[in-house]
Structures are given as C-alpha cells and as structure tokens.
TrEMBL record:
Cellular component GO terms, alphabetical: cytosol
Annotated source species: Marinospirillum celere
Domain annotation CheW-like: ranges: 27-168
SUPFAM superfamilies per UniProt: CheW-like
Cross-referenced Pfam families: CheW
Gene Ontology biological process terms in this record: chemotaxis; signal transduction
InterPro entries (UniProt xref): CheW, CheW-like_dom_sf, CheW-lke_dom
Family annotation (SMART domains): CheW
Record-given protein name: Purine-binding chemotaxis protein CheW
C-alpha cells in the first residue's frame, strides 16, 4: 500500500515538528541587588559568597565614609564598603543589616553592603543592552550594560572598575 503525497507531506511535517533545535547561546551569571530604589547587578564570577548581613561589623576609626567597617569571615578579615557612597547615590534608609556580597576583583577582596539581594540568575548575553547616554554621570564609568529584571531596569556594574577606582583613592 503506497502513501499518498498528502500522507507523505503530513509525515514530513510531523518529523520537522519533533526536531529540537538546540541553540548554544553564551550566557552570564548575575547577582542582582537593590540599593535604595535602584537595581544593580554584578557578574557572578566576581562574587565569591553572599553573607546574610548579620555578621558582627567592627568600625575602624579614620576610614572614609565609604568603608562601613571590617568583618571576620572564617578567620579572614574583609572590609565592608558602602557601594552607594562610591557611586554617589543617596544613602539608603537603614543599610546596617543588608546582605554583604564578598567580591574579588582587581586584586581586592572585600565585602559590599547592599540593601537587598534580589536574585542570582543565568541570562543569555543577548539580553544585555548598551548603556544609554541618559545615565547619571556618577554611574557612567561603572555601568557595563543594562538588563530588564521583572520590568525594572538593572545596571550591570563593572566590579573591576569599581574596585580599581576605589584603590586609587576615588572612594
């Protein structure tokens, strides 16, 4: 019994529908957080650990306003910086208990106090958008890209640039 041309076409269509096309698009892991009303992110490869923020913080006299103090992380001492001070953003209402992102870049290992951890996510590189000219001047040197997170714009920060400028005394 031979198949009619219509049956053959239907069989070909079923086969084509069953084919799965696997597109291997490069991705990036991001740590998304809030500072006040603004959303930011760091590349996950630069964040070694996320601490809950309940660690005992020790104040160090004579430090710039951008250094909140130091913490003991399993025997290692790490400074804790206030990112909103470095980025010249309005101070958060209470930034004493927010999570601490332990970052490592540009030869610097430090904690970064944030107001709220929003997500750790994998995102395709194609989701990153270029930085607009309308960005505030204080943020332009540090923002590498923009992305959308739950309908809100997120600035992807270049942690290496943040740490480099901080080490050079701009913080």
């Amino acid at each position: 019994m031979s198949n009619s041309p219509v049956d053959e076409l239907l069989a070909l269509k079923r086969e084509a529908a069953n084919e799965i096309v696997d597109v291997d698009e490069p991705g990036v892991k991001l740590v998304v957080f809030a500072l006040g009303e603004r959303y930011f992110a760091f590349r996950g490869k630069f964040i070694q650990e996320i601490l809950p923020g309940s660690e005992t913080l020790f104040y160090v006299p004579g430090m710039p306003a951008s250094i909140q103090g130091v913490i003991n992380v399993r025997g290692d001492i790490a400074s804790v910086i206030l990112l909103q001070e470095l980025l010249q953003l309005q101070a958060s209402r209470d930034n004493q208990q927010g999570p601490i992102l332990l970052g490592h870049a540009s030869g610097m290992h430090t904690g970064i106090r944030v107001d709220e951890l929003l997500d750790v996510m994998d995102l395709p590189m194609s989701s990153l958008k270029p930085v607009p000219d309308s960005l505030p001047e204080s943020l332009k040197p540090y923002v590498a890209a923009l992305l959308d997170f739950k309908g809100k714009a997120v600035a992807l920060l270049d942690i290496e640039k943040v740490f480099q400028d901080y080490q050079e005394g701009l913080g």
